[in-house]
Structure formats: structure tokens, C-alpha cells
Amino acid sequence: MTTLKPETREKLKTVSTATLATALFKRGLRNQVIQDVRPLNPANAPMVGEAYTLRYIPAREDINPISVFQDRGHPQRKAVEECPEGAVLVIDSRKDPRAASAGSILVSRLMKRGVAGIVTDGGFRDSPDIAALDFPAYHKRPSAPTNLTLHQAIDIDVPIGCGDAPVFPRDVIVGDAEGVIVIPAGMADEIADEAVEMTAFEDFVTDQVMAGRSILGLYPATEEETRSQYAAWRKANGR
Questions:
Q1: How far apart are the C-alpha atoms of 23 and 195, rounded to whole Å?
Q2: Is the pTM of this model over 0.85?
Q3: How far apart are CA 32 and CA 23, in angstroms?
């Protein structure tokens, strides 16, 4: 069951992962970025949704033949069919892209089911086809071999590590053209509010810098005149 408020989801769509990383850093959280993943198509960002997880372990050949896909209870297949609408499927592939985490057919099924996106710290096969979908997808690099070659799907909707970041079910996953970040579920509302405010201020700062102003006293705003100018800028720009 979703706990992500619609208004929080919309706010998070307007801010960058860089801004979110700073807001989380202020709270002592330094390891929330999923490392070494990138969008197959940056134009498909933003991506926002609660985490629904799939965990792989190293494959053991005697119990991981291609016939396992005939089992409707296979964890990879269950994840694709049960990932909630509006959620993000996050896959722990042990940072190993030598075999695919999924391919275009499974990703297309997620898209048609209304899932918000997919992230793996491994790779996707059929990556050009996935990039052509209107669907946010993030991986380390393309990978043609089937997941069964090296990965054994073992569990769904459990805490995982993805790209060295801890991901718990219902954490909020945000992706943009740069990458993906994980917001602890209980912080999503306050982080979204702060990030929107930070984004407005940084837009003001950018305007000032492009007009030739020094960053000293401006970024951060250590002068009262700067704070007054920012308040006037926000009013004039409806921010």
C-alpha cells in the first residue's frame, strides 16, 4: 500500500538528485545515491515512486536452468507482475552487469502496468528497445546474456543494496537525467519541501551569477541584502 502523498510525488518531480543529495547530507545521510547507474534515455526523467525490490544472488547452475521461467512463482516474474502501480522496481544485481537483470519485454510489461520506473545496478538486455520506451530505466551498462547466466532471483520486496545504497521497501526513489537517489520513507515529505525551496533559491542565484555577480555573500546567502533580494525575486517570479 502506497504512503507517498501525491503532492510529495509532484514536488519531487521538480527537483534534482543533486539538490536532494544535499538535503539528505544535512541530515547526516551520505550514502543515498545509487552509484554507477545512468538513464538509458535521459529524456524519460523524472522518475519518482516507492521502492519495490528484487534481489539476485549468484546463480547455482543445477537449480537455475532456463526452465525456471515456466514457474509462475519465479521471483523475477512475480516482481514484474506484482510491482505496484506508481512504484519503482529496484533490482539488486550485485553490481554485476555481465548478465542482464531484465529485457525489453519485462520492462514493457512494467510500463503497461503503470509502474513508475526501473533501476538495476547491473545491466539490461535489449537496451536500445528499452531506451525507446516512454519509461524511465536506469542501469550500469547494456548486457546481452540472460540473467540466468549469472543471477538467481531469490526474493522480492525485502531490503537490498543497489549500487552501494541501502534500499528498503517503500523508500522513495527519485531519478533524473544524472542518476538515482533513495529517500528514506519517513523523510520524504520534509525532504521534498526543503528541496523545492533550495531549487528556488539556486535558480535565483543562477540568475544573479549570469548577471555578473560574485558568489561571495550570495551562495550561501550570508548578507541581509541578498536575502531581501531573494524574497523580492520569489515574489516577482511566483515562487
A1: 7
A2: yes
A3: 11
Give the pLDDT confidence of 136-161 residue by residue, as tens digits. 999 999 999 999 999 999 999 999 99
Q: Which of 162, 179, 159, 161 has the alpha carbon at shortest distance from 170?
A: 159
Q: What is the DSSP letter of 72?
A: T
What distances in angstroms separate CA 176 from CA 75, 112, 159, one per listed residue?
28, 21, 23
Nearest to 38 by CA among 129, 128, 139, 173: 139
- Per-residue burial over 7-21, b if 16 or more Cβ lie within 10 Å, else e, is ebbebbeebbbbbbb
Which residues contact residue 211 at a Cβ distance below 8 angstroms, ignoring those fewer than 6 apart? none
- Report the chain's mean pLDDT, rounded to a whole number: 96
Q: Tell me the sheet residues that pair with 47.
A: 175
Q: State the Cα–Cα distance between residues 54 and 119, nearest whole angstrom.
A: 10
Q: Is 179:140 a contact under the CB 8 Å cutoff?
A: no
Q: Could you tell me if 138 and 54 are in contact, meaning their C-beta atoms sit under 8 angstroms apart?
A: no
